[in-house]
Every structure is written in C-alpha cells, then in structure tokens.
Amino acid sequence: MTICGARNRKGSCCGNIPMQNGRCRMHGGKSKGPNNPAKLHGNLNAVGNKSKLSTGEFEIITWDRLTDTEKEWLTEQYRLKPNEFIDDPLEMEFIRVARMLGRMNELDKDMNGNFDDLIRLEHALTRVQMRIARMITGKRCKITTNQREPGAMKRNL
C-alpha cells in the first residue's frame, strides 16, 4: 500500500492514503477551486467580489482598483504625468480611510437601522488609523484609555 510520504510537523512521513497526484488531501491532493472563471459566479470568495465588503479594513487597494475620482485627486496631489502612477502603501491607506469615512457617512443617514454596522466600521477605522500611525512612526503605538471614576455616570448612545 502506498502512503503520501510528505513530511509532517513532527518530521516523520505522513501515513495518509494518497490521491491521484501522489499526495494526500492535506499535502496537495485537494482541489484548489474551479479553473474556469465562469464557475466563480456565486462564489463569495471570488476575486474582486464586493458583495461581502462590510468595513473595507482589508479591501485590496491598488492603482488599478482606484476610482477615477481618486486617481484624479492623486494625480493633482503629486503632479503625475499621464503614464505615471502612485502605489505608495501609506497613500493607499489614506484612500482606505477616505472610503471608510464615506461608508460611515452613508450609514449615518439611517443610524437607527445600521447602528451595529456603524460601530463595527468605527472600530475597523480605528485599527486602520493605528496601522497608519505605525507606518509613519515605524513602531507600535499604544492606545491609552482614560479610566472612569467609580462614581461617574455612564452615557447611553
């Protein structure tokens, strides 16, 4: 009987039964998904899918994915020629913040129905701003919170 033979975490050989390619399902025998782009329809993890975008904290932002308005703003800001583009990670984070603030503005119009989404977006925005601060300073930043006095009143939102 044949075995997979791949090295596992312990350093010994994997003893699982191999698939047609000679490895088990954990070491390269499992499918990588559909090769035909037409079969990606309906896949929630498809490339460029915006239907599951909730906060934008982990949205991929590159020059190719910028809107025309964002490209025009960066072109004016950096005085870029038509064949030039900017792909600075810090600048892309600023674009991310602008997009997140736009989403917050849209959710703020109907705060009664979207309060949880608004809070989630606000927390994500704080994490993105901390990432920007780390990029600028080159080190980790610490958030300090003021401790409430024991007799202080709670504010309800």
Principal-axes shape call: elongated
Distance between the termini: 66 Å
* Poorly predicted sequence stretches spanning 5 or more consecutive residues: 141-157
Structural class: mainly alpha
Largest sheet: none
Number of helices: 4
Helix content: 25-40%
- Average pLDDT figure: 76
In percent, how much strand structure appears in the residues?
A: under 5%
What's the number of extended β-strand segments?
Answer: 0
Question: In short, what is this structure?
Answer:
The chain is mostly helical and 157 residues long. Helix content is 38%, strand content 0%. The chain is elongated, with a radius of gyration of 24 Å.
Question: Could you walk me through the main structural features you see in this protein, from its secondary elements to its overall organization?
Answer:
There is one protein chain. Helix 3 packs antiparallel against helix 4. The chain is elongated, with a radius of gyration of 24 Å. With 157 residues, the chain is mostly helical. The protein is 38% helix and 0% strand. Mean pLDDT is 76; it is low at 141-157.
